[in-house]
Amino acid sequence: MGVANLLIVDDTVETCDMLARLFVRCGYTAECAYTGADVVPRLQAGTFDLVLLDVMMPGMDGFSVLAAIRGHVVPAIATIPVAMYTAISDPDQQGRALAMGANEWIVKGTPFALLRQRLECFLQSRGGA
After folding, report:
1. pTM above 0.90, yes or no
2. What average pLDDT score do residues 106-120 get?
3. For residue 89, what are the CA distances in angstroms to 32, 77, 84?
4. Angle at 128 between CA 100 and CA 81, to 5 degrees
5. What are 8's strand-pairing partners?
């Protein structure tokens, strides 16, 4: 198996950069996108194994980004695992995301070791961990 390549999407630069550094220290490669509008072009330009996606972002929010990913014509993009990473703990919003095709819903503040563990099954199934 190769090294997993993650696309971390969060409009808070500090959060995105901190997560990327933590994942890199654990042997992954990680890139940041700071707006929802950047996600699909980044997925088209690179090979990613998973998207860690903030929900609350200005402009194109996480739900809109998820819809764009799941509706994409390129199967490698449309089927990429997407973990929603958000401060929202509302079960209705979680259900909405899962119904739209999100693979996981993780509330911000989850310890990094648990976050990493929850993403491993998706990374392993794609051969990236």
Report:
1. yes
2. 93
3. 23, 27, 11
4. 5
5. 32, 52
